[in-house]
Amino acid sequence: MTPTQLVELVAEKGMRVVAITDHDSTEGLAAVVETSKRFPQLSIIPGIELSTDIPGNEIHVLGYFIRYSDIGFQQTLSEFRDGRVARAREMVDKLAALGLPVDWDRVLELADGAVGRPHIAQAMVEKGYITYPQEAFIKHLGRNGLAYAEREKLTPTEAVKLITGVGGLPVLAHPREVDNVEPMLPELKAAGLVGMEVYYGTYKTSEVKAFAAMAKKYGLIPCGGSDYHAMGTPGEVEPGMVGPSLEIAEKLYAMSGNKISLSK
User: Fold this and answer.
1) How far apart are CA 92 and CA 147, in angstroms?
2) Beta-carbon contacts of residue 165 (< 8 Å; ≥ 6 apart)
3) How many folded domains does the chain comprise?
4) Checking phi first, is residue 84 left (phi over 0); if not, alpha (psi -120 to 50) or beta?
5) Gyration radius of the chain over CA positions
6) SS3 of residue 83 by DSSP
7) In sequence order, what are the beta bridge partners of 51?
8) From CA 8, how far away is CA 44, in angstroms rounded?
9) For residues 70, 5, 114 and 65, what is the CA-based torsion angle, rounded to 10 degrees?
10) I need a labelling partner for 222 at 20 to 30 A (CA). Which of 25, 109, 186, 199 fits?
11) Coil, strand or helix: which one is 56?
């Protein structure tokens, strides 16, 4: 799905505000902002999702309202993308060794920019190895998968500081995927973390309540959303199906220095 198609989709669904956060890339944001001008009722939060590493786990940090055209920021992202390409190539090579070859040029074509595991998964679907992209993450591309490859990443604290350095609001993404997340929160909050994903596509009600209490305990804004990747998997949570109230979005806008009325 292209950035333009994504904006058209969320506008069609009647959404009022949406954050667009690609992995380690802002390449689609200019097109997103331009397309959104066709839909005056829709407010776009420009963002990014940075991949970070701790021993034995990967943590994603969202950055909302970033100055994505900042030259230094883009240089850092360029270095990240180089790492993503090398990692993706290594995973494609590992798949070939497992008897599951996919065409590297096709993976790059599917990525059309920042290449990542979803594009490899889609190439596997096209080859008929799997039915849905998510299957690839279970056996081959997930952290414990047979074709998984590491790459150099920031620490979560470094990512938070990188985001605040370009005027962004850092938010911890999908904390359920992080083992023993609570002890990390004081350090991240001190570095500039302002929120955490409390509402998420696959969270149970009990998990939402637990993360809401955790966010309140540490003075973090309870954010969230669908984490829509357009995978085409049956039951995939789509934009607008999960998320916080518009009042939360207004609070984020206010923290970014922008005033907006969404809840009326």
Assistant:
1) 8
2) 73
3) 1
4) alpha
5) 18
6) helix
7) 60
8) 12
9) 30
10) 25
11) coil
Give the CATH number, domain containing residue 240: 3.20.20.140
Structure tokens at 218: 């540490």
> What tens digit of pLDDT does each residue of 37-93 get?
999 999 999 999 998 887 767 899 999 999 999 999 999 998 888 888 898 999 999
Cα–Cα distance measured from residue 148 to residue 94, given in angstroms and rounded to the nearest whole number: 8
Those residues with Cβ within 8 angstroms of residue 30's Cβ, 6 or more apart along the chain or in another chain? none
DSSP H/E element including 195: strand 195-200
- Which domain covers residue 199, as residue numbers? 3-70+167-255
Residue 146's SS3 state is: coil
In a domain, 102, yes or no: no
204 within some domain? yes
In one letter, which amino acid is 49?
E
Residue with tokens 């802002």: 26
* Domain annotation covers residue 152: no
- Following CA atoms 159, 200, 143, 120 in sequence, which dihedral angle do they give, to the nearest 10 degrees? -90
Q: Dump pLDDT digits (tens) for 228-245.
A: 777 666 777 777 778 889
Helices (H), 137-204: 156-164, 185-191
